[in-house]
Amino acid sequence: MVKKEMIAMLLAGGQGSRLGILTEKVAKPAVSFGAKYRIIDFPLSNCINSGIDTVGVLTQYQPLRLNTHIGIGIPWDLDRNEGGVTVLPPYEKSTSSEWYTGTANAIFQNMDYMEQYHPDYVLILSGDHIYKMDYQVMLDYHKANRADVTIACMPVPMEEAKRFGIMVADDQGRIHEFEEKPEHPSSNLASMGIYIFSWDTLREALYSLRDQNGCDFGKHILPWCKERGERLFAYEYHGYWKDVGTLGSYWQANMELIDIVPEFNLYEEFWRIYTKGDIIPPQYISQEAVLGRCLIGEGTEIYGEVHDSIIGANVTIGRGSVIRGSIIMRDTVIGEGVIMDKAIVAEGVTIGDGAVLGCGEERPNVDKPDVYAYGITTIGEHTVIPAHVRIGKNTAVSGRTRPEDYPGGVLESGQVLYVQDDEMAWCKDKGKEGEHA
């Protein structure tokens, strides 16, 4: 096998539970983004744009769509005889069979994959962030400082610092202290979850901590390296970076794409974002359609009004429908006369004529108030919404719902409706009365 100076290991096995029913059937890195892409397209495109042609993608939770999307890596020019992209799910060993139990444990279980390339450096990436970064510049920084570990960091508002791993570095960038989600942070320099390890350091750390339950980079590997006196440096990044881990941040990141001057530009020739494209027909915009500030995917047909929204590929929006401030993913069919305001609609949904989504006063969600918030109506994959029903804000609907599932034709704000195998799970203000989700 050809020796590679640096290989990338992309962690893409996370569920992303804070995205609620959007990740019920799909891993977070495979969730649609920006009318055309999936979240994992961004780190994969960063790799090939940075000259990294060997990428191991570690999958675990609901990997089918992710595996299908990546394939042999053709869209990213990663279909190589030597290197390229390789999907790395958990597998049965001769002595045991175990799931990945932590970020570092996942990397450790793929030592054989890394060893075959004899790398000088290993780049560790998360598969669930939206950003553009030249990893080669970060590697140059790593080399210039003779670092053992380099951690990509960015300044965050001090009031948000406690949500991150925080680095305390000197004027030369050397890290002298770090705190994992501290209650009272000493700095606002937050880890982005992007690491470059010199190979010998990473290998020794992984073997030394191989028996650590749930071995994780932030909690275990970095403290081990620090205690050993390894040279840890912070690579400060000042570009656009978004963790789309909540429905609010996911909605906001999509909406930022349609700003007059978007902070995150998808149209740069010198740093393209690549994806698998399998929708052949062009868009069709009818004579009566009205469009204002939106992104529209291939194969979509629009007969109604769309404002300030992201519309995925192969979507149909019927006559008289009005869509505002919403994200509609691919293969969705919206009937005639539908009114939608600030909704996230997952793939393959059918919405009947005259339905209204995002109406009424905003109320906290009775099931998961920290997930289904921000005034967003969330519709899960392959859900069927009957004609003429009204669905409030901070709601979640999943399954082939029927008119009788909506008392009085309404799902009030803050409610959750899950239907599975034609059985209904209905959550009311005072709690769950029967859940089959």
- DSSP summary: helix tally: 8
Which overall shape is indicated by the principal axes computed on the Cα atoms? globular
Low-confidence blocks of residues = 422-437
Please tell me how large the radius of gyration is: 23 Å
CA-CA gap between termini: 47 Å
Q: Indicate the proportion of strand residues.
A: 25-35%
Average residue pLDDT = 90
Q: What kind of assembly state do the chains in view correspond to?
A: single chain
Counted beta strands: 33
Approximate helicity band = 10-25%
Biggest sheet architecture? 14 strands, mixed
Main structural class:
alpha/beta
Describe this structure in words.
The protein has about 425 residues and is of the alpha/beta class. Helix content is about 15%, strand content about 30%. The chain is built from eight helices and 33 strands. The strands form five sheets. Strands 15, 17, 19, 20, 22, 23, 25, 26, 28, 29, 30, 31, 32 and 33 form a 14-stranded mixed sheet that branches. The radius of gyration is 23 Å and the shape is globular. Residues about 420-435 have low confidence and may be disordered.
